[in-house]
Amino acid sequence: MEWKMNEIIMDLMLERDIDTRQLASALNLDTATIYKWLRDAGKMYLYNAVAICDYFECSLEYITNRTDTKLNFVIRKEYPNFYFQVRKIMKQLGISRYKMTTASKFKDSYFTSWKKGTEPQIPTLIELADYFKVTIDYLVGRER
Fold first, then answer.
1. What is the pTM of this model?
2. Are the C-beta atoms of 6 and 38 separated by less than 8 Å?
3. pLDDT per residue over 41-80, tens digit each?
4. Which of 54, 94, 97, 140 has the most CB atoms in a 10 Å sphere around its CB?
5. Architecture in CATH for domain 82-140
6. In the chain, which residues fall in CATH 1.10.260.40?
7. Alpha helix stretches (DSSP H) within 2-140
8. What sign results for the dihedral spanned by CA atoms 4, 73, 124, 53?
9. Residue 99 and residue 91: Cα distance in Å, rounded?
10. DSSP code at position 94
């Protein structure tokens, strides 16, 4: 599926009958950020994508056009730390950090950044989910 997150967010806004200012206010962001996303000109990080999904009650898989199912799990109030969630999945799959960094495009510095609290951008989440063969929602701890 082609990645058209901006179009999906616009559709969700139309369904709720809200404009850019209302969405920005609901997410506690400035309207310029929302406009950038809708023009597909701004990079979206995990925490903003989760905020959008929580607001519209949909999955990360849905807004990234990886599924037609809007919501197929229960939304959680809190999500695990991204770094620790990735490490948990690696342990479940028997993938070491060394193996992952040598067999993929994910550099060791990514892990260091994530451990320090840096949130990944949406394209990185998609690539990681594909690498692990899981949904993005499972990857970030939104899905059990």
1. 0.85
2. yes
3. 667 888 899 999 989 999 999 998 888 888 766 666 678 8
4. 140
5. Orthogonal Bundle (1.10)
6. 5-63, 82-140
7. 5-16, 20-27, 31-38, 46-56, 60-63, 82-93, 97-103, 108-115, 122-132, 136-140
8. positive
9. 12
10. T
